[in-house]
Fold each of these.
Amino acid sequence: MVFSVILAGGTGNRMGHTDKPKQFLTIKDKPIIIHTIEKFLSQPEFEKIIVLSPAMWIEHTKRIIAKTIGACDKIVVIEGGNTRNETIMNSIAYIEDNYGLDDDTIIVTHDSVRPFVTHRIIKENIDAAMKYGACDTVIPATDTIVESIDGNIISDIPNRNNMYQGQTPQSFKAKNLRDIYLSLSDTERDILTDAAKILVMKGQHVHLVNGETYNIKITYPYDLKIAKSLLEEECND
Amino acid sequence: MVFSVILAGGTGNRMGHTDKPKQFLTIKDKPIIIHTIEKFLSQPEFEKIIVLSPAMWIEHTKRIIAKTIGACDKIVVIEGGNTRNETIMNSIAYIEDNYGLDDDTIIVTHDSVRPFVTHRIIKENIDAAMKYGACDTVIPATDTIVESIDGNIISDIPNRNNMYQGQTPQSFKAKNLRDIYLSLSDTERDILTDAAKILVMKGQHVHLVNGETYNIKITYPYDLKIAKSLLEEECND
């Protein structure tokens, strides 16, 4: 079974003074998160689309889904965790409680604020997760990547040909991801801002899936402006 | 003395089927390269603005400068080299031939296709190059950075807090940069796609200057669309 896991746990404090988390901002007549959910809804492989939200926004999320998509028992909204990875673990616990978990249960985790994901990307994620166990959506780095340990002086400029910018989805065999996460120490968990890194730091293979330049994450007001112009041109597959 | 070095040597083959290199595409009634040159022209510190162009586009570049900016002896257009670093070396040779070169001669090198650079960024580049000898304009990485040596499997996900996306300007004490470049082997030169790396690989300090998210490089048609919407809103300082 394959599940879509939509991560909407962010509190959105990088968007400046808006009254709502950024997934609820409207582009082209709909909240961003609805555009995102619709991409997964039109893909037949998913057993369920699990939306993870901060507790105080669960009812609002349910309401806008009902209003824009209508009654749909394929979508469920549950509470996220304190961190990105804890939120993913909540989705796995939900799956285990309601469907059981076997070695081949797949989760396709995706940022609620990346509405431009394509069906091709989602399909390749499902296929790669089934075949290899884990995958990450990336694009080749367009900028030179610079490393600075102290924030003042460059410590390294790695070979650009080896560098990629991570997007989502990130897809995993859920049971394996959880088992490895549970085996980590608190110190190890604290440094993990990325789910794929859970596996990478334990030496497991995570395969690459090609993303798209326009599969952007709407984080700053600047991104929202770009997103609006992208949506006007329907830059989808 | 401080010189602006505008790098317009690219052949633009990533822009798809356009008849001209991308620096000549028009946004808001002017070629992109003119927007860029004007940012440096309005900054009094520069002795000269040296534009480096492929041989076959030198006359065209001169013509559009004459047409949009008018007669201006502060700007000179000369031929670039085969690589980015060879092009920078051509600018240093021009400075040496015409003005002489001392230890404090500064070059502020900038992509001709980054028209959204600000006066604040340029000023901080001049100051940092004078004070420290070299600087690079960067923004904190917004995406997770992923390393893959083979292009199939993730080899590392470095700590995002240490990762930056390189922009331009990159500014240097010209004589030091040239002397170090001349000391490199052909093999070392071949792997250098970035001027700051010339110094980094020899253990010299390159300081960071804060860029701006919107200081984008116009590389793909997607960028051109964003650039047009940014220019409409005059997202400058």
Amino acid sequence: MKVELEKVLPGEIEARSFEIITKELGDTPLVPGTEPIVKRCIHTSADFDYAKNLCFSEGAVEKALAAIKDGASIVTDTQMAKAGINKKALERFGGSVYCFMSDPDVAAQAKEEGCTRAKASMDKAAKLDCPLIFAIGNAPTALVRLYELIEEGRIDPRLVIGVPVGFVNVVASKELIMETQTPYIVARGRKGGSNIAACICNALLYMLKESGRE
Amino acid sequence: MKVELEKVLPGEIEARSFEIITKELGDTPLVPGTEPIVKRCIHTSADFDYAKNLCFSEGAVEKALAAIKDGASIVTDTQMAKAGINKKALERFGGSVYCFMSDPDVAAQAKEEGCTRAKASMDKAAKLDCPLIFAIGNAPTALVRLYELIEEGRIDPRLVIGVPVGFVNVVASKELIMETQTPYIVARGRKGGSNIAACICNALLYMLKESGRE
């Protein structure tokens, strides 16, 4: 087979990718205002399912952007998602990225309670005293715990990005979050991941960057 | 809607997930010996396409396991993949995980040459003096550079995990790597990602852990 490479300058690869995504989406209906997020998820996964499975609560994107501008911090359930989020872009607005999964006190609580570290890490995050966005890309148990903490009135997140991936309670945990009054961006069904969680955070950050340029 | 959660103990979630994956794969043909890798990619993505798109060069898994036992280090093209690889498990065999994407000298070379940092980071990796596994989950330009370095006889990787994701030269870069004599694990087509790159590394590490238990 003859392999041919397309000549694209390094600075143009992303724009060219988004052109291809936009073209292939054709007239697939997307909720107005959510397009940059949906397209970035497809960019990150090459999986057009995200054009259909992403669910946004009413005004979720506007509320998320406002939260970031207010200096919201982001809590993730994996070091991978933390590594993938553009921390410099977030820091410009005053926020930080937290992941408590590797913390000794979280491990200790998980062992004591017989729960997942993901659940214990949400309990730790609930003690943070700042506006919070949760970006859950791995553990449905984290999302279930967020649901409980929200329903008990112990936390009031500015946004929950609910995109755990997998086969055990993943679908159900997302449906639970969508029952709350908390703004959410959820990938309905089994799909998601740390990469998707990070990419939704970055899509939001880049929307602010671009609107700042205008 | 009534949401029902399945009761599964934290330590049993992964095993239950693999049960579901195995059941849903049914009699989908997989190359013998590659099943733990294919299933872990599906576990990481909830995307059964990986049962079809993963390509293994002859004996790739055995060669990869031997490389890890020999103390091979892993070079990735993203901090996310680095964050996702089980570094403790790798260190037991003597290897480390490297990602040079954020290094100032890599940024400087990329600027000077007008190339991607991914390409420059592969040039830096080529100077490492140890057995190497490359785990490329993001940048096709990294994979193309590896192809060139291999063809020029400047590197001789023990394995190339070629799973960049996306729309510009991703498909072609994978086909290029499959033309070399280097052992490879490639996700043919557009799909892949840092999460998939990390998960293939981990699947290999867990295969060694499990065989060590016997």
